[in-house]
Amino acid sequence: MNVRSFAQRFLVPRWGISLYYFLKFHCKVSARAEVELSPFLKIGRRSEIGSFTKIKASFGPLHIGKNCFIGAGCFIAAHQGGVVIGDDCLISPNVTILSSNYNYQRLDVPIGQQGYSSLGVTIGDNVWIGSGVCVLDGSRIGSGVILTPNSVVSGRIPDNAILQGNPAKIIFTRR
């Protein structure tokens, strides 16, 4: 942990971080959330971040659209590929969004020593992500999508689809 990370985590009060993001982006960040002070993080107007949510944007861009709600206990980590969340999205509690994945092709090298890749995650406008959903690296979620609770999402999801399961499958298309 470098000096900047140490100072940010232990010396800057969380209410100070909440005030900083309110003044900079006109959004609400709970004082109980753990949001990094990062030049890679951009939050849209009128967006809200709930308690006990962790947002990590040290290694890549993270853009949260306007009028989004991120529930309690979520974890969003942006790496080189980045994370883009569109406008008017509802993210329920305990959702995980990851934009990196370990390489695991070689059998003679431990997985932790093979490095990682980062394709990024894109979430369209007006998406509702149910509680406990896991969105994996490389996901491209279209606009108007509904993800039912505890689904695991990877790959491309077309607009207006409703998905369920592990792995998530389309069960209905909104018309």
Characterization of the model:
The chain is mainly beta. It has a single domain, classed as Hexapeptide repeat proteins (UDP N-Acetylglucosamine Acyltransferase, domain 1), CATH 2.160.10.10. It is built from two helices and 22 strands. The strands form four sheets. Strands 1-4-7-10-15-18-21-22 form an eight-stranded mixed sheet. A six-stranded parallel sheet has the order 2-5-8-11-16-19. Strand 21 and strand 22 form a beta hairpin. The longest helix has 12 residues. The radius of gyration is 16 Å and the shape is globular. The N and C termini lie far apart (50 Å). The model has no long low-confidence stretch (mean pLDDT 93).
- How many strands, what sense, and barrel or not for the largest sheet? 8 strands, mixed
CATH superfamily, by name, is Hexapeptide repeat proteins
Total E-strand runs: 22
By CATH, the topology is: UDP N-Acetylglucosamine Acyltransferase, domain 1
Query: Separation of termini?
Result: 50 Å
Low-confidence stretches: none
> Into which percentage range does the β-strand content fall?
25-35%
CATH architecture classification name: 3 Solenoid
Task: Report the helical percentage.
Answer: 10-25%
Q: Any idea what the shape is?
A: globular
How many helices?
2
Rg over alpha carbons: 16 Å
Mean pLDDT: 93
What order do the SSEs take from the amino end to the carboxyl end, as H and E?
HHEEEEEEEEEEEEEEEEEEEEEE
Order of strands across the biggest sheet?
1-4-7-10-15-18-21-22
CATH class, named: Mainly Beta
Q: What structural class do you assign from the helix and strand content?
A: mainly beta
Q: What count of structural domains?
A: 1
